[in-house]
Amino acid sequence: MYLLGYDIGSSSVKAALVDTQTGKTAATDYFPKKEMEITAHRPGWAEQDPASWWENLKSATLSVLRSSGADRGQIAAIGISYQMHGLVLVDSTGEVLRPSIIWCDSRAVPYGERALEGIGNGKCLASMLNSPGNFTASKLAWVKENEPELYSRADKFLLPGDYIAMRLTGRAATTVGGLSEGIFWDFEKNAVSDDILSHFGFDSAIIPDIVPTLGYQGEVTAQAARELGLAQGTPVTYRAGDQPNNALSLNVLDPGEIASTAGTSGVVYGVLGKIGYDPLSRVNTFAHVNHTAADPRLGVLLCINGTGILNSWVKRNFAPEVVLYSELNEIAAESAPGAEGITVIPFGNGAERVIGNIDPGCSFHGINFNIHNRSHILRASQEGIAYSFRYGMEIMKGMGMELGVIRAGNANMFLSPLFREALSCVSGATIELYDTDGAVGAARGAGIGAGIYSSAAEAFASLEKIAVVRPDSGKTQAYIEAYGRWREILKKETEGVNHDNKKLVI
Fold it and tell me: Pairing state of beta strands 405-409 and 258-262?
């Protein structure tokens, strides 16, 4: 028997088949082979056609079935991971009314800011754990005000993963996790937020039915079965946003456990075992995949915009002849921890929520023309990224999280021994690297939701640990001192006020 996992990204749609007996990946593929189109009619806008997700999902499904040789009747359950915070509007027949306003679209920011002021900062944080910000509720408010005729025809709003589940099962539904990531969920009342509905003037009928994140959500319809080559009646038993799902993929489910990614941007996602929030709203807090009101599990999400994008920038500009990032890492390692006094503030990819939505830009400090060369620049850049992670993790610690182990996929910045060493030493955390991805994680989630696995421990028993990185006692002090310099420079770079006219405490 097999489990089928989907990962619906904004660049591609990935599918994976996992063997339930061995836990091994039988087949995986993604479509399109070039990045999916994102339409931007105005600066700051970003839209995608949900039909393109479905077409690419069909191609990926047929590919993994063909390459694995699996029979459609051998697929026991389906799981879905998806790009978070998007908005899909459908009418009463399930037809999409407009292109999806996806996660990186910023048009709704003013609507979220007005909601924060109207409802009250304290009320929003205590109940929703976040500012309404640029999340799904604010995007729906934008449509309501700017496209009223279209809004009047909307029967339900959906997140991207909800749309895929609807195409599979014929049922428009969502999860508590999905509602929380859209800033529709009141954690104090354990219900859809009346404050959000009232402030934006939403009718509660536009909220989809709520199904469990891990559990039965519906069955593949005859129409979907014909399109995908699947068996009618195959259950859908899991769905979650990409970051909670990445955590699940790494078996990060209990308080104090941490999952991290470091691609173009970087994410540290930790599990909090109580209802809590950052009073300055520098991190996002959502219901994790195993959250219940009786046994809270919140995912605290720290995002750093300037991560891999900084590493690629210094590669292009300081080592253009280098082809492989492994070669870049070797050049960077020619200098010692601390880069002989060079400090890089990596925030050059837009405003950073972790520092109060300030956009200080990327900056290099302490360069001496007589002693420094490109190896110092390259090392200091990777260290600067690691230090930004450490800074965000301090916020998470302030929320009551104990951070001992960071789990990550063996990809992107985590392929760099230097970055791994710097992050481990400066944070004091052990880093564990695993061979997994979002589609595989969604497949395992489906196995848990369907009861095929008796526990998460059984589901992840075959998860392959590739490497373990522990703090190097001989180098830790150098990194701690360099982080102290980094923090002082960040303080000077961001002196002033944030968007709420409150002093930013660095």
Answer: parallel
